[in-house]
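Hi support team,

I'm filing this because I wasn't sure whether my run with zinc ion finished correctly. The job status page said complete, but I'd like someone to confirm that the output block is well-formed before I use it downstream. Pasting the exact inputs I used:
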Amino acid sequence: MKRDVGRRKNMRTWYKEITFSTSRQREVIDLTGEVVSAVRESGIKNGILVVQLPHATATLVMNENESGLKRDLIEQLDRIVPVRGDYEHDRIDDNAHAHMKSAFVGSSVALPVINGSIIRGTWQNFLVLEEDGPRTRRMVVFLLGE
Ligand code: ZN
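And here is everything the job wrote out:
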């Protein structure tokens, strides 16, 4: 499906920082409700949404909030980057695996917002993979649109 969503004359930007806490060293946290509320709060109906974790040891993925899958995500990432390894960074800081997971998978997403709704799949929730907790974390929600 393709459609013209119109020329935009009253573009503006909107920004919110959401603080959240993780309670374990490694866990998956669903922040979909917070992101959806932030978009509603912005009043922007059509535009681009950017969600970013300003952190080097956490990961943001869009996927299903299902308990088995959440364990699979954590455990299978360990097969790519095991928690223990011959990592240079562990000489100064004991979290090299968490940095690499964040670098390999990513920590931000950009999505369209159309008629007030974030365009995403039914099972695409905003999941944060904490790999080096517990910590206080931030999530940035930025919108450009009108
Ligand atoms: Zn580190």
